[in-house]
Sequence to fold (370 residues):
Amino acid sequence: MQTEAAILWELNTEWSVEPIELDPPKDGEVLVKLAASGMCHSDEHLVTGDLGGVFPIIGGHEGAGVVQEVGPGVNDLAPGDHVVFGFIPACGQCPSCARGRSNLCDNGAALLIGLQADGTSRHHARGQDLATMVCLGTFGKYSVVNQMSCVKIGDDIPLELACLVGCGVTTGWGSSVYAAEVKPGDNVAVIGIGGIGAAALQGARLAGAERIFAIDPVEFKRDQAPKFGATHAYASVEEAFEPIQQETWGRMCDKVICAMGVGRGTMMASIMALTAKHGRVVVTNIHPMVENDVTLNLCDLTLMEKQIVGTIFGSANIRYDIPHLLHLYRLGQLDLEGMVTNRYKLGDINQGYQDMRDAKNVRGVLVYDD
Fold:
């Protein structure tokens, strides 16, 4: 079939919205008509090269839509089902999945290659095969994906909100609840209040944190932070240090979650200074793949028993946590609508990402209404 998608042909260029040819689903695959896609910073990392990747590639990995067709071997999904894509597939059989760590599923090793499980592509343009962002390619009105990446959801959830739990919301929420293990009464700092950071604030609030310090240089995002759970807001780690010291009587933050657009190793020492004895720093944001230098006082790490942990997808499980978070939305405990600052048509994708760079959005969403 012919549809259209946003393609990145090379580094540091704009997304090109153009026609593509899409093959039918093969064994274990499904054809999905996308209703919406979140505009995550990870796709901007493709543009800048911070995340590596292959070209040409269809971007997008926060998607929700309706199944149109299923290939051979697909038994759990049928045409008409509403699904959210989990940006990390979960096979349910590899050692990581069997241990309850589906966010580390062995099938994730091929995500940056962007091809189907058999090593081929279903997406084509200008006579070339196209890769897809983490084997999804949600910056298009239709996509063929593996069933391992699909989570069936209830028909009552608006798909333009449901798409957010495919990456950013679950990643941020899980960074607080799972990776940081925020407990009632904890003092928590969240650095960077974009889509992931705003969800981390909500996760910390739902987990019972007493004080939640939002840190972001953009006034608009600091103004938005209280509605997601922040009790205080500061423009920088340095500016936050003394007030946090005063608010916590010198104990500092039990948990610090790094959710900046791009992490920097040179910031780690100041981030550790915000962290309490036996406190934990969770590194959620992407650092440039070529960065190897980190400024860190290891004596502080040892003598104060501080911890630094990494997390992907907030250490969450797509099969459990995507439906769980959507249930929290139903109950009014998770604000998804408030996280969507602006909605865009596919043809406006470059404007949407410019708005992200200009810090005008907590999260932008592409809505495919035709």
Notes: The chain has a mean pLDDT of 96. The chain is about 25% helix and 25% strand. The longest strand covers residues 29-39. The domain at 2-166+340-367 is CATH 3.90.180.10 (Quinone Oxidoreductase; Chain A, domain 1).
